[in-house]
Amino acid sequence: MSSYEPDITMLFMLGGGVLFVWGFVRSVYLCFRKLLYGEERGRTSDDEPGEIYRIMSSARQEEIVDLRKNAILRYLSRFTLTLGDEHLLCCTGSHTDTAFSLSENEEVNDGSVTANETCKGTEKNDDIEKGNKDDVQDIGIGDMAQDSTTAADKYTHISIPLPGCDIEGIHICSCSMEAEKEDRQEGNKWKLPSLFQTRDDDAREKQGPITITSDPNHHQQQQKVDKRSVPIFCAICLSEYETCDRVCWSSNTDCSHVFHEDCILQWLISSGKKRSMNQSFTRHPTDEKLLENEFCPCCRQDFICVRPALLGSEESV
């Protein structure tokens, strides 16, 4: 028995060594596989288990689509407005008329002419009184009314804020980057506390400086929004914008295209669904993950700038 026991002990030691080596090699292989193929195999950067979209169940795929739709609506809410008469423009050469200006200059069917037309007739060096035949044309009352109605219907452009600016004219991306820079600078500063500083002084410093202005036009200047004129056609449905239509533009400053809200929403949802077939989603995916590769259908640039915090914003009609 004494000569047989060392053989069993040696066998157990050899087996334990093999298991140890196998476990070590397997752990190294899994770590290497996680670093290179973690996203493709259903692992995210935070080591939370995920699932590839194309192998999900139909119910889970519909849930991802709903999450993407809600995220798109939240992020585009500040870049969407309802068109009114003040947004419709009639650009002819260097002259631009709005719907309001066209309605004010519109002739009445009973033959009466507005004061603006009367002023225009008297300013032409009294050509009518002098009998200048070259400048006077025999135009009927019905033709005048028909021409004014046709001009009022031919809107060529709409007026909306600049690319990257929300409905209030605020450049979201630049504001968020400046705020982050200021926060980092304030966090790096070290201030020597004063022996005579009270709690009220600390509260005033946290509130920041209070600016008082007596200019009555100061509030109006803050509300002034820089706008641009864009064609009245939607590039997706190829139809004209009309009053009460909801239009949407990009939060990216490099994309200047404008679409109907429903048109761009359906485009982003369908394109995002197609591009996410091989992507992995966790149980609670982030907005950055849901809105990846959401490109403009015209210029193929990012249509949504996910970096700024646009959640919970309200629309201004």
Automatic annotation (TrEMBL):
GO terms for biological process: ubiquitin-dependent protein catabolic process. CDD domains: RING-H2. InterPro entries: E3_ubiquitin-ligase_domain, Znf_RING, Znf_RING/FYVE/PHD. It comes from the Eukaryota. Keywords: Membrane, Metal-binding, Transmembrane, Transmembrane helix, Zinc, Zinc-finger. The keyword DNA-binding does not apply. Residues 105-139 are annotated as: Disordered. Gene3D superfamilies: Zinc/RING finger domain, C3HC4 (zinc finger). GO terms for molecular function: ubiquitin protein ligase activity; zinc ion binding. SUPFAM superfamilies: RING/U-box. Residues 120-136 have a biased composition (Basic and acidic residues). It comes from Skeletonema marinoi. Signal peptide: none annotated. The chain crosses the membrane at residues 12-32. This is RING-type domain-containing protein. Residues 234-300 form the RING-type domain.
